[in-house]
Amino acid sequence: MRHVSTKLLHVFVLLMEYRDLNAVAACTQGRVPTIAYSLARLREITGDPLFIKRNGTLEPTAHALRLEQTARQILSKWAHLIRPPAPATEEASPHRRISIGFSPSIGDPVITEILTAMCEQFPDDRFMTRPVFADAALAAQLSSGELDCAFVVDSHFVPEDVALHNIMATPRRLVSVTRPGGHDDAGGRHEWILLQEDTEPGSPLQGFLNRLAHEPAYRETVVPSWHT
């Protein structure tokens, strides 16, 4: 999510469906150069061409096919978040002042979309924002009421009186590797391919991997992911 906005994801999903820049431009009521620029940004972010033109049609690469499900899941979660099925109830006291913390790692495009959706849905409220990090200090700010809510990535400091909601989640996979010429036990159990963000401090996978790290055969290979 750090570099991919939901608008880019929407263009990607439409390209998977129509396989044509002109058709996607017509569907979004946009211009072909705008769609081409979005595709160029997606290629830059993912490091993959994503689509190859054959006989006038854009054919998705293997990497694009793998990303499609994740992109659709993110868009579905996002649509549900900013357009809840039930109408919002009238608040007893309008003109509220709401203090919100945002983790910088979420990325400016997503933060902008969150604030835009909240301002549209609650036009009488005033939103105050500040940068925060998913640590014990944030937990204290939420517990004391200094912050009303916060949008962060993988926080593990949650006080008992703070409600935690996972509003956008994508699958994580641990891949065990058996290398040519290796034994099943020595290779497959201790050699792992990790996504970049799962090697960062505070990742939910670190506790599991740390228990294996002292073993002589343990080895990590880190690969970039959609989010980095």
TrEMBL record:
Keywords (A to Z) from UniProt: DNA-binding, Transcription, Transcription regulation
Annotated ranges, domain HTH lysR-type: 4-61
SUPFAM superfamilies noted in UniProt: Periplasmic binding protein-like II (SSF53850), Winged helix' DNA-binding domain (SSF46785)
Pfam families: LysR_substrate
GO molecular function (one): DNA-binding transcription factor activity
Domain of life (superkingdom): Bacteria
Protein name: Transposase
Family: Belongs to the LysR transcriptional regulatory family.
